[in-house]
Amino acid sequence: MTDDYPTHPQIEKARRLARLLDEAFTIPIIKTKIGLDPILGLIPGAGEVVTGLMGAYIIWIAYDLNLPRKLMGRMVVNLVIDQLVGLIPGLGDLADWIWKSNTFNVRLLEAAYREKQRVLAEQGKSPSWGSGEGPFPASAASSATIDIDARPV
For residue 135, what are the CA distances in angstroms to 47, 90, 148? Predict the structure, then answer.
């Protein structure tokens, strides 16, 4: 992430949550990261519900920041795929370990927020939160074009 524009406290929360769900622990032998998502997924039914609600909070942050609906739709699709595949015993937990939908959704969130801040700055508006527009500003920034098809590196 570049620091062209200030970040938002809500995005920091989303980053921490995604890290907890997708990369909280390192498995020493294979030196790979695993989060609570595949671990809680071992609990039949309840694990997917809990991690699904936690992942939905990242989408709520996108809504709260008034980011484009197309972006939120993509984030919902990522979460739904994660949840549906996670319901398959064994294979779902492996998929949760590999498919880090929360991290991917945070990257989408960050890119959309940066684009929104860029558009606001071009319009001569303050790119920081609390610019007097409220939590749901009705500006052209909410409909800015954002590449949501970018894949995580």
Answer: 32, 41, 22
